[in-house]
């Protein structure tokens, strides 16, 4: 049985490609795990210049309510800015910001097919020999993102540029605000962490960088040789302190219980690789601040998932999973970063 | 647990009913059921432990605060409501201890917070 979205996607793409005929969509499949956008893969076929052509594509559509409220244009432009650079990303094809075609805003991109993203698979044994390569590529690519000039990429057009000494406050204000608005229960550890962060602010950012915002194991595509073939999920990207991204990747939740940064490398090795690639130095005290901040940010996301369920806006099982499994684990991570555990 | 176990089970019941209907696309049926299975396993674990953990935590926090934990009902929802009240008061007590520079009091609160995280720990959590 075909998915009801297939003819609607085909009609949309046909409207964007007047040179094509017989545009059809098949094999539409929901990819599980995308909690802030509905993500589907499909195959597009069409006729052009007397030939039948096909291409695998990805649809990312806004759900009715999400863990994270973000602008899909910012995500689209971030992908587009890095396409063809040292940061591997899929090619963006079409962005639709209205509800007209598919009920909610969406974008369509090429699918980087044949690769894996799941951390559980990466850590299940068959990839053990290439994990050092994955680690080296992961932190090198993050260093490349930190090194990039947002203005040269044209991203300053879409993303607000905070002052160097205001990066930390903007982010902390934003995520504390999310927790204030959406928490359904008291979080004493999170509140203590926020108080510590405010009392011990980090130094100004060394440079203004593109911050991916969710650069962790699970948000990139890897192959059997340990090469990273695509960096995904740029929906929280913004301009800010490059240590913010490093701290997100180092926060304990993303160790996947392996005791290694991102489940892949010692923190010292990860930071050294990042420093080599970015040309920046990661001040240990500042990095500690950003790592704890990212625990608070993570809690903001999980609190948001619980709220999305409670308000009835999104009852997808992934929303329940996020709230049940991560709210407590995130507070445990805060205890570890604060030296209380 | 937030959302509550009963609210989640009601939702999963509705999801499973939908999944038996022919109109649900296959591409959505399998991932929804896989995720539901994982959630049901966690719900089973929690259904046995929840009241015990909440009673223990409410008594521990109440003792720390010089408060009394209400045990008018042992329904999980009632115990959770009392837990929210006590944890809210614990935040206030923690702020006061920090402002007073009372390290002994802060250490006692941190010890209870560590114990609380351990109580909430779920088996087989991949994080």
Description:
The complex is a heterodimer of chains A (341) and B (127). By secondary structure, chain A is of the alpha+beta class. Chain A folds into two domains: 5-110, Phosphorylase Kinase, domain 1; 119-337, Aminoglycoside 3'-phosphotransferase, Chain: A, domain 2, CATH 3.90.1200. Chain A has eleven helices and nine strands. A five-stranded antiparallel β-sheet of chain A has the order 1-2-3-5-4, sandwiched between helices. In chain A, strands 6-9 form a two-stranded antiparallel sheet. In chain A, helix 4 crosses helix 9 (267-278), helix 6 (167-182) packs parallel to helix 10 and helix 10 packs antiparallel against helix 11. Chain A is globular and about 65 Å long. The mean pLDDT of chain A is 93. Chain B has four helices and no strands. In chain B, helix 3 (76-100) packs antiparallel against helix 4 (103-120). Chain B is elongated. Chain B has one domain (5-120). With 127 residues, chain B is mainly alpha-helical. Chain B has helices at residues 5-19, 26-65, 76-100, 103-120. Classes of the chains: A alpha+beta (341), B mainly alpha (127). The A-B interface holds A 1, 3-4, 28-32, 40, 119-120, 184-189, 191-192, 195, 253-257, 306, 309-310, 315-318, 320-321, 323-329, 331-332, 335, 340-341 and B 1-3, 7-8, 11-12, 15, 22, 25-28, 31-32, 34-36, 38-39, 42, 84, 87-88, 90-91, 94-95, 98, 109-110, 113-114, 116-117, 120-122, 125-127.
């Amino acid at each position: 049985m075909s998915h009801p979205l297939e003819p609607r996607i085909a009609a949309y793409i046909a409207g964007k490609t007047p040179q094509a005929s017989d545009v059809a969509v098949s094999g539409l499949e929901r990819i599980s795990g995308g909690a802030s956008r509905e993500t589907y893969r499909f195959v597009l076929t069409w006729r052009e210049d007397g030939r039948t052509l096909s291409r695998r594509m990805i649809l990312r559509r806004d759900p009715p309510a999400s863990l994270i409220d973000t602008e899909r244009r910012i995500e689209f432009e971030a992908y587009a800015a890095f396409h063809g650079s040292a940061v591997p990303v899929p090619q963006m094809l079409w962005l639709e910001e209205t509800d007209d075609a598919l009920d909610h805003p969406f974008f369509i991109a090429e699918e980087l097919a044949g690769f894996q993203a799941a951390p559980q698979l990466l850590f299940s044994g068959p990839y053990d020999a290439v994990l050092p390569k994955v680690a080296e590529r992961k932190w090198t690519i993050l260093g490349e993102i930190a090194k990039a000039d947002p203005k040269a990429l044209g991203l300053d057009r879409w993303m607000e540029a905070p002052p160097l000494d205001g990066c930390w406050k903007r982010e902390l204000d934003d995520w504390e605000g999310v927790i204030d608005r959406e928490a359904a229960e008291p979080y004493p550890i999170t509140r203590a962490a926020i108080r510590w962060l405010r009392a011990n602010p980090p130094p100004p950012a060394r440079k203004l960088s593109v911050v991916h915002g969710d650069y962790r194991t699970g948000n990139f595509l890897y192959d059997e040789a340990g090469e990273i073939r695509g960096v995904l999920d740029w929906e929280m990207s913004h301009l800010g302190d490059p240590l913010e991204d490093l701290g997100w990747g180092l926060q304990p939740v993303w160790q996947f219980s392996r005791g290694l940064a991102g489940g892949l490398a010692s923190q010292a090795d990860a930071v050294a690789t990042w420093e080599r690639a970015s040309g920046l130095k990661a001040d240990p005290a500042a990095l500690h601040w950003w790592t704890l901040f990212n625990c608070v940010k993570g809690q903001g996301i999980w609190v948001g998932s619980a709220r999305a369920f409670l308000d009835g806006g999104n009852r997808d099982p992934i929303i329940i999973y996020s709230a049940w499994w991560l709210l407590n684990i995130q507070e445990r991570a805060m205890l570890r970063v604060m030296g209380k555990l | 647990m937030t959302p509550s176990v009963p609210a989640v089970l009601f939702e999963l019941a509705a999801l499973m009913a939908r999944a038996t209907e022919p109109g649900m696309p296959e591409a959505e049926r399998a991932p929804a059921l896989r995720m539901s299975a994982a959630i049901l396993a966690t719900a089973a674990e929690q259904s046995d432990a929840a009241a015990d953990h909440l009673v223990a935590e409410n008594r521990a926090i109440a003792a720390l605060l010089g408060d009394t934990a209400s045990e008018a009902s042992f329904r999980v929802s009632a115990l959770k409501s009392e837990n929210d009240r006590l944890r809210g008061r614990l935040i206030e007590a923690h702020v006061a201890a920090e402002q007073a520079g009372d390290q002994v009091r802060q250490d006692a609160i941190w010890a209870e917070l560590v114990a609380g995280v351990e109580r909430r720990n779920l088996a087989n959590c991949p994080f």
